[in-house]
Amino acid sequence: MKTSKNVFWIHALLLVISFVFVLSGCGDDNDDDGIAPTGSGTVSGTAVKGPVSGGSVAAFAISNGVKGSQLGSAITDGQGNFSVSTGTHSGPLMLEMSGGTFTDEATGTVMPMGANDVMTVAIPSISTGATVTGVHMTPLTSMAQTMAGNMAGGMTTTNINSANGDVGSFFMINDIIHTPPMNPLVPGSGTTASQDMRNYGMVIAAMSESAMGLGMSRSSGMVTAMMNDASDGVMNGAMGGTPVSMDGRGGMMGGGPMQPTAGTSELASAMMSFMTDTTVNRSGLTQADMQTLTDKLNASNGRLQ
């Protein structure tokens, strides 16, 4: 009788152990399938310098106003789309993208991002476990991020909101994070685009046009120059009084300092030149559609704030 009881309990124990192993195996399968743990947030959106394919996107916590620990990483698809984990982070967040290729607006050719060029976006705040969508990482969000980073206190929620708003206002775009830039290389893209989307797309195209005019082999170098110019809140070709250097930006015209009007009247002129080249400007828009913005840039003293 005692032997029978022992056998019974041994069998029961083996069943419990087997059940535990089955549950453990199921958990491993979920991890392999990429299912995020409970409470893990994500940010998804699009990297646009022309849509950037194969770019490396990293999400960083912002701590005490500066870029902190990395939270997650992702690769953009052929249309520039990405989705990156933010873990359990809450508060201000920064995304940074490097590498990849894009179709340059001014030349219509596929270009790689420069080795020392990045694009960024600073998000004022996210909640733990939140799913954030519709984020655009562009030359303008990059300019705003560098501006916020150089304000007193760094990238605080208040400074990020202020910088994003100031850069948007300067280029007549209400929301530079969530407004999708029009792609002027797409035939008829201007027909259904809002004026904000038109302004956004044409400002990016004007940067490419400026880069082409300087003989730059990679227009992402112009984005980096514009980021540096915007860092002190004034588009005047300088960072806190020191001229922005164009050396090493991939140009063929000797480098040198950035022109003081590169982000204002010269950008307006580049936009007008791009508008007239229908081999690349397939949006259907004409100079008249962008006149209000170019007039504003021509009259600007360069102050973003």
Task: Give the helix/strand layout.
Layout: H1 2-32, E1 41-47, E2 56-63, E3 66-75, E4 81-87, E5 91-98, E6 101-103, E7 110-112, E8 118-126, E9 131-137, H2 139-149, H3 157-170, H4 189-192, H5 195-213, H6 220-230, E10 238-239, E11 242-243, H7 265-276, H8 291-299
Parallel strand pairs: 1-9
Antiparallel strand pairs: 1-4, 2-3, 2-5, 5-8, 6-7, 10-11
- The helix/strand series, from N terminus to C terminus, equals HEEEEEEEEEHHHHHEEHH
Low-confidence stretches: 1-38
What structural class results from the helix and strand content? alpha+beta
Write down the Rg: 25 Å
* Helicity range: 25-40%
Q: Which term fits the overall shape?
A: globular
Identify the CATH homologous superfamily of one domain. Answer: Immunoglobulins
The CATH class assignment of one domain is Mainly Beta
Query: What value does the average pLDDT take?
Result: 89
So how many helices?
Answer: 8
**How does CATH name the architecture of one domain?**
Sandwich
Instruction: Give me the count of strands.
Output: 11
User: What strand order characterises the main sheet?
Assistant: 3-2-5-8
Please provide a brief summary of the model.
By secondary structure, the protein is α+β, with helices and mostly antiparallel strands. 36% of the residues lie in helices and 22% in strands.
What would you say this structure looks like, in words?
The chain has 305 residues and is of the alpha+beta class. The protein has a domain at 41-137: Immunoglobulins (Immunoglobulin-like, Sandwich), CATH 2.60.40. Helix content is 36%, strand content 22%. The strands form four sheets. Strands 3-2-5-8 form a four-stranded antiparallel β-sheet. The longest helix is centred in the first third of the chain and has 31 residues, at 2-32.
